[in-house]
Structure formats: C-alpha cells, structure tokens
Amino acid sequence: MTRFKTILVTGGAGYIGSHCVVDLLEAGYEVVAIDNFANAVGDDQGSPALQRAEQITGKNITFYKADLLDKPQINDIFDKHEVDCVIHFAALKAVGESMQQPLLYYQNNLLGMLNLLEVMRSHNCFQMVFSSSCTVYGEPEHLPITETHPTGKITNVYGRTKYFIEEMLKDLSAAEKRWNIISLRYFNPVGAHPSGLIGEDPTKEFTNLMPFMAQVALGKKPVLTVFGNDYNTPDGTGIRDYIHVMDLANGHVAALKLLNDNQVGLKVYNLGTGKGVSVKELVDVFERVTDTKIPLQYVSRRLGDITAMWADATLARDELGWTTKYTIEEMCTDFWRWQTMNPDGYPKNTKTTVIISNGNS
C-alpha cells in the first residue's frame, strides 16, 4: 500500500492542531494546514503557532487562511494539492458559548464538515481522522467509558455537533464503502509542547481550566473560578481525564498509520489516560510543580457540565498501538513552561478574530 504523503489539517493553527502538525512533520508527512482563526491567533500574514512548529521541526508547512463555510475556497486548495488524508480539527469548541449561540455552532461545525466531505469526495480523497469528543457520551452510565458506551444523551450543544457529525460519518461510511475514517474521542487535553514554544492561547473568554489557572498563577487574574463544589465526588469538584496534548497528537499519527494500512470503514477510539483527576486535585498538582498559589472561588455549576468522566483507552492501545506517556505533573510543568515563556500568549498583530466568514474577510 502506498504511504500517505500529504496530510491536510483543518484548524491547524489551533491548540491541538498545531501540536499535531509538529508530530506529523516529525513523522515525515508533508502538511497543508488551514484555519480561519476562530479559535487561534493569526491573521492574513499567517499563524505564529505554525511558524513555531516550523522552528521546532526545521520543516515547512503550507498554510492557507481559509474557512470551511467557503466551499469554493476549500475546493481550490484541494485542486492545488494531492491530499492523501484529512485530519479535521476545525470547529467551534466552547461548551458555554455553544449553549448561548447554538445556531453559530450548528452552522460552523455541521456545515463546515459537510462542505469538507463533499470537496474530499470530488477529489477522490476518502481518508479522514476526525476530532471528536468524550462529550458524545453525555452523563456516563458507567466508568471508565469504553467506546461501546451509549452516545447521544448529550448535555451541551458543542457535544451535540460532535455527535451529529459522528452519525453523519456512520451513514456515509455505510452508504459509500470507499470511505476510511477514524473518529477520535478526546478526553481533556492540557499541557504544551515541551519546548515551551507552542501551547494553548485562548482567543475567547470561554476558556479551559489550565490556561485560566496559569493566568491566576501569573497574577494576571485574581482567582480561579471553579464551577461547582457540590458534585458527588470525593472533594465535590468535577472529575475529568486530563491528557497531555502531545500524547493526543501522537494518537493522530497512530490513527493515520492504521488508515494507511487498513480499510476500516469507520472506527472510533477513546484518547485518554484512563485516570480521573478532580479539578481540586489538578490545582494542587499545579501549585506543587510550579511553586505558585492559586486562590479558588467556587460558583454554581455550569449548564451542561457533568460530574465525572474518564476513559477506558484499551482499544486504542490494542488496535492503534497507542498509549499515553506523560504524567499529570508533566502536563502542568509543560504548560507552565509555555505560559512563563509566553505570558501574553502568541504575538498578536491584529485584534480581530474571524468567527464565521464568507471567504472575503
């Protein structure tokens, strides 16, 4: 079987996308990345995260500022490159925002995927790794969560978009046997590249826990807001399966190898460590390894949040040959290195962020 050569990465300038690009380049793939900067820092001049990915690897990335809602624009990119496989990260992803702006999420995430699939098919590209989420499981019926756990009883709009896309991929792969798709259900990505050159730089107020925590540790924010301390958990705070972003990136390279060597139709894998860590426990570890103090402010639970969730990632180990390597201490240490080296995140040339564009902005 011929080896995949060129990988198109949608959302390549984002947090997970940029780390995955580093792993792809180091694995010998050529990368074409696209991003509309809805969730990432950048402008018409390009992406600082991807420029640094080039610096880390010593390899070049072809980048386009592009929006999946602009189908002709995506078609042009496929015309220019012989794409062997697509890794699809691009999506709006803030749970809280999704509850406030559901139509924005349905438009961006669902229509973007439809356009992408149609353009792929018209260019005879049927290989995809899809960035899914453990949110498709909803409130867990049992722990740890295996891939056979029921999906669909989802507590937020963001998770529903991931679920609807998985259903779309199910129908597509059943109807057209040429498709070869792996859906990776991520648990909670944290950390940063060990170089400290790339990391998570949120563009919205709806931010993830670790960047918020680091901002408090740096003295840029007064307290860490913790949503809920009355959950049915040992310390009352929610429990999640935190996974180092480089372990996550490595899972995509493992998925590519499986797609390259096998016709799988549609396969689903959990990517997590298999260990649950509470918000309070994560704060304690972060304080210890960074020698900082993080004051906490407990507020009421957020709409759409669940009590506890962690993965059973045995299937990914057995079929992808993938396991996690990084500890929770290393996740905190690597993120702190990124944050202290880049206290204001990436250099910002512009203040505007494109959320949804018609291709002209």
TrEMBL record:
<dbReference type="GO" id="GO:0003978">
    <property type="term" value="F:UDP-glucose 4-epimerase activity"/>
</dbReference>
<dbReference type="InterPro" id="IPR005886">
    <property type="entry name" value="UDP_G4E"/>
</dbReference>
<keyword id="KW-0119">Carbohydrate metabolism</keyword>
<comment type="pathway">
    <text>Carbohydrate metabolism; galactose metabolism.</text>
</comment>
<dbReference type="GO" id="GO:0033499">
    <property type="term" value="P:galactose catabolic process via UDP-galactose, Leloir pathway"/>
</dbReference>
<dbReference type="InterPro" id="IPR036291">
    <property type="entry name" value="NAD(P)-bd_dom_sf"/>
</dbReference>
<comment type="function">
    <text>Catalyzes two distinct but analogous reactions: the reversible epimerization of UDP-glucose to UDP-galactose and the reversible epimerization of UDP-N-acetylglucosamine to UDP-N-acetylgalactosamine. The reaction with UDP-Gal plays a critical role in the Leloir pathway of galactose catabolism in which galactose is converted to the glycolytic intermediate glucose 6-phosphate. It contributes to the catabolism of dietary galactose and enables the endogenous biosynthesis of both UDP-Gal and UDP-GalNAc when exogenous sources are limited.</text>
</comment>
<keyword id="KW-0299">Galactose metabolism</keyword>
<keyword id="KW-0520">NAD</keyword>
<feature type="domain" description="NAD(P)-binding">
    <location>
        <begin position="8"/>
        <end position="334"/>
    </location>
</feature>
<keyword id="KW-0413">Isomerase</keyword>
<dbReference type="GO" id="GO:0003974">
    <property type="term" value="F:UDP-N-acetylglucosamine 4-epimerase activity"/>
</dbReference>
<protein>
    <recommendedName>
        <fullName>UDP-glucose 4-epimerase</fullName>
        <ecNumber>5.1.3.2</ecNumber>
    </recommendedName>
</protein>
<dbReference type="InterPro" id="IPR016040">
    <property type="entry name" value="NAD(P)-bd_dom"/>
</dbReference>
<comment type="similarity">
    <text>Belongs to the NAD(P)-dependent epimerase/dehydratase family.</text>
</comment>
<dbReference type="GO" id="GO:0005829">
    <property type="term" value="C:cytosol"/>
</dbReference>
<comment type="subunit">
    <text>Homodimer.</text>
</comment>
<dbReference type="Pfam" id="PF16363">
    <property type="entry name" value="GDP_Man_Dehyd"/>
</dbReference>
